[in-house]
Amino acid sequence: MRPQSLLAAFVALALPLAGGAAAAPRYTVAAAIAGPDGPWDYARTDDDGTHLYVARGASVTVVDLATGKVSSIGNVQRGHAAVPLPGGALLVTSGTDGTVRVLDPATGTESATITVGKKPDAAILDPTKTHAYVMNATSGTVSVIDLATAKLTQTITVKPALEYAAFAADGTLFINNEEANEIETVDVARGVAGSAIALPGCDAPTGLAYDRPHNRLIAACANGKAAVVDVATRTLTSLIAIGAGPDAVILDEVRQLAFIPCGKDGVLDILSLSGAAVAHVGTVKTEVGARTGALDPKTGTLYLPSAKFVPAPAGGGRPAMLPGTFHILVVRPA
Question: Which stretch is the leader sequence (predicted)?
Answer without folding.
Answer: 1-23
